[in-house]
Amino acid sequence: MFEQFPIVVTRCNQVGKGWEPLVNDLLTKLTALNDPKMEVVQIKEKFADLRVYYECSPEVDEQARVLIVEAEKAARITCEVCGSTKYVTQDAKNGYW
Q: In 5, 75, 81, 94, which residue has its Cα 20 to 30 A from 21's Cα atom?
């Protein structure tokens, strides 16, 4: 899923297809920071929220954090399964939003 990005993505627990555009957009923006030390350590869903853990140079840390927070906020109003921002619900059996 992330082979097209030059930054390292160490671990990605499966996120739903609905969040893939958000994650791809985030990785594009993180790549644009041009930080050779940028590494996305983990991407996952936790408690119906997108979580992104990363390491980078101190010079770009604040910029990276802002981008990640934006993606996490967008995920809260986006269905992880289908990507809809109109019909975001919880499936109690599967835990998807």
A: 94
